[in-house]
UniProtKB/TrEMBL annotation:
Protein name as it appears in the record: Phage shock protein B
Domain of life: Bacteria
Chain ranges passing through the membrane: 6-24
Keywords in alphabetical order: Membrane, Transmembrane, Transmembrane helix
Amino acid sequence: MSGTTMVFLIVLVSVGFGVISDLYSKYLQAKKQSGINKQESDQLKTEIAHLKERVAVLESIVTDEGYQVDKKIKSL
């Protein structure tokens, strides 16, 4: 092997390890971020479930006949 070939291989290996290291660090960051997103997603799902319950209660109040009669009386 000539000196030029050895220098080229050393540079190639160094750059290769640098690229692999960078890709691995980005992978770890993405994995950490997905864990945070999962926790936030679970919280949002819980909040949506509570809001659906509240909307159902409000719909039952508005569609109640007593509410409709009271609304008509107040409009007179």
